[in-house]
Amino acid sequence: MALLKRDPSSGAVTTVSGTESFDLAGEWLSPSAVAQVLDDTALLSAPDGVSAAVVRALREDRVPAAFAAQPWLSHHRALVFDNGCCRVGDSMLHYDKEFGVYTDEDL
Questions:
Q1: Exposed, middle or buried, 4 (CB in 10 Å: 0-12/13-18/19+)?
Q2: What residue stretches are annotated with the Cas3 C-terminal domain (predicted)?
Q3: Residue pLDDT, tens place only, 27-71
Q4: Are 2 and 39 in contact, with CB atoms under 8 Å apart?
Q5: Long-range pairs for 15-22 at CB < 8 Å and ≥24 separation?
Q6: Distance of CA 11 to the CA centre of its chain
Q7: How many domains does one find in the chain?
Q8: What is the spatial distance between Cα 52 and Cα 44, in angstroms, rounded to a whole number?
Q9: Which residue range(s) make up the domain with 71?
Q10: pLDDT of residue 106
């Protein structure tokens, strides 16, 4: 999963630690944006405490067009966090620099 954030004022999407914005619906990402996405990925799996329903919903989500065009990202899905939150199915995921991705159930 690519961990992304949306700037609340501009709507621009970047990786959680990156600065270069990009269009997920676009057809191309710069090499530096690809590197940022690869640096800000996480593997989420049900055995690690993420509910099976969340993992299933993420697997069923479409690969963003900008990722599908890149060999290194062609199987990655995106989690776009708005103010640190991202809804997936019935669950709310959160992102924190120190703790990573967690659910409300983890609190």
A1: buried
A2: 14-100
A3: 889 999 999 999 999 987 776 667 788 888 888 999 999 999 899
A4: no
A5: 15/39, 15/40, 16/40, 16/81, 16/95, 16/97, 17/97, 22/66
A6: 15
A7: 1
A8: 10
A9: 2-106
A10: 65
